[in-house]
Amino acid sequence: METLTQDGLVIAAVTCKEAEERRPGPAADVQRITDPENLTDELRARLAPLIRPRWLNWVAQAGDSDEDFLRRLGPGERRNVRLGRRFVREEGLRTDVRAGLSEALVDDFLVLYDAQIAAMPRGVDFARRWRDRMLAADADHVGAWVFDGPRLVAGSIWRVRREEGMLQLRFSAVAPRLRAGRVLRALYTEAFRYARGRGLPYLSLGNDPSLFGHVVQPGLFTFKARFGFTPVPAGVLDPRLGGDHADRFLSLRALSRPALVVTRRPGPLPAWPAALAAPACDLVLLTADPAADPDEFRTPALRVGRTVVVPG
């Protein structure tokens, strides 16, 4: 058995044989089975590990028009988009979506992104790590920006995936004073309009781990799902992000209460773009409260199919 800690989460990594022979120690938050292909039916029934993709990619069809995309959203989310657009107009802000990236704009964006990450309990500054590589591949990127006069107040950086016919979000950030104004929803729909104009039929809101309540939070799941996007195993689009974890959750000490896990159904991964029309994932609620209401996280893409009660 090997014990590792990831951002405060203590993981006991065990083989199936070790899982049969010994219990995880009291310090472990997760028991991770490293050889799930060797799980017997009896051990699978006893341990009930959650088979989850390491990474997810959130995908959607761009639709034929802005109206076509918005029609798929619930009434509340359509209202959020309208309010975001109204805020942009009433505050005199200017949006701009353009191909390529400039060094000056990326550096202004990173100031916003750094501040946003610093406010997160376990934020990781991936955008700054990728700065030079994104600038070197600026022809494959699109910037969607919001300006207050000459000053950048919100932005998002997108990757053009021509082979998959997709515009994929990489990073986004917004000034703190604008977060309540739903500005990112308005900005994202401008990027979606750009994708349609360039003949890209698919959209992505990027990659996330399949555990919401650790590095990323359940609110991010809710936002993306209610915005009309469906999570698929990231290996469908990026084999290097493929693979599964077989996890048994033992404690919520290092997680939000509740937490969410997107699990993968058995079988081979569907190909792209068939994966968008062939759901391969389910949602599991991790909670210390047996009376927790799973419908709190119901979305057009997924609903909670199972609740697992985990000690706090």
Characterization of the model:
With 312 residues, the protein is α+β, with helices and mostly antiparallel strands. It has 2 domains: 122 residues, no CATH class; 170 residues, Gcn5-related N-acetyltransferase (GNAT) (Aminopeptidase). The chain is built from 9 helices and 16 strands. Strand 1 and strand 2 form a beta hairpin. The longest helix is centred in the N-terminal third of the chain and has 16 residues. The two termini are 24 Å apart.
Sheet with most strands: strand arrangement: 6-7-8-9-10-5-12
Strand content bin: 25-35%
Number of H- or I-type helical stretches:
9
Run of helices and strands: EEHEHEEHHEHHEEEHEEHEEEHEE
Q: What's the CATH class label of the largest domain? A: Alpha Beta
Q: In this structure, how is the largest beta sheet organized?
A: 7 strands, mixed
CATH topology of the largest domain: Aminopeptidase
Q: What structural class results from the helix and strand content?
A: alpha+beta
Instruction: Tell me the CATH architecture of the largest domain.
Output: 3-Layer(aba) Sandwich
Unreliable parts: none
The number of domains: 2
Number of strands: 16
- Report the CATH superfamily of the largest domain: Gcn5-related N-acetyltransferase (GNAT)
Q: Indicate the radius of gyration in whole angstroms.
A: 20 Å
Fraction of residues in helix: 25-40%
Q: Mean of the pLDDT scores?
A: 93
Q: What is the terminal separation in angstroms?
A: 24 Å
- Which of globular, elongated, flat, extended, rod-shaped describes the shape? globular
